[in-house]
Amino acid sequence: MVALTWSGSAAASSPNRFDNLRIQQARVASVAYKLAIANRPLCRAAAAPQAGFMPHDLAQYAPLDRPGAANAYELGSRIGVMAVAGSSPAANAGLRAGDQLEAVNGRPLATVVTPEGAPTMAFVDQARRVIDEELRHGAVTLSVISGGMRRDIHFTGALGCPSDVQLVPGADVNAWADGARVMVTDAIVARCPSDDDLALVIAHELAHNLLHHRRRLALAGVSENTLLPVSSVGLAAVRAAEVEADSYAVRMTGAAGYDLGGAASFMAGLLKTNGMAGALASTHPEARQRLALLTAAIARTSALR
Ligand SMILES: [Zn+2]
Q1: What is the rounded distance in angstroms from the CA atom of residue 197 to the CA atom of residue 180?
Q2: 163: CA distance to ligand 1 center in Å?
Q3: Domains of the chain, each with CATH number or no CATH
Q4: Distance from Cα 242 to the centre of ligand 1, integer Å
């Protein structure tokens, strides 16, 4: 699995960039949570209790961004809460963006940041692992610092598909899946005017993970680096995976109650942008063929309703 770091710099463009990232992460967290809960029958054994919030810490940001992130997100020496999905167990129990996490069921959640240290997700990943473990055992007590006050929050996870979806700062209109995690750039989120569109993008990537496409492609000799040349066998495997992910994305998006009415025209617009047409043209099936298959999948899903 490719280690994720926030290699992009959030500070580069404008002082409001951090606020925008938080707004986008809140959208991503809510859409990912809805997809995860509505589609739990698809995950079978992989389904697990979900809390519905996104932790983050200063260590995941580029050193240049840390002062800005500390200021904008009230981040310090603890794991913080970047976003809480609406109607999730965490939201209903009162967890809010900006809260800081101390412990779950008494197990400490810790992070360490050194001013010039390279960005790392290691501490957030460790915190997620501990929280997920505790959620699997039942109700959890999250000890948080909220507006300077310490308080305990109690909730039980809601059963759903694994849905670790990370917003990554970046100008490329891109989304990808690494087998466990889904990454979406803030540029692709900005290209999704409605949550119906965003749900389709996220569901496509969640489907890649759900269907173990990374493992299947590796068996067909396809490297994780999509820019490397691919054999004809590998290319066929990639195209089959894309078509399958599109078909699942339509089904998952519909199951979560999102409107598929604009999906085909949204996807047609997305495929025309540089990011998709450039970096992904070699691996994603030809746009016209892909759109035809997507439209057919939408018709099948709509017929079932
Ligand atoms: Zn794909």
Answers
A1: 22
A2: 16
A3: 10-160 (2.30.42.10), 170-304 (no CATH)
A4: 5
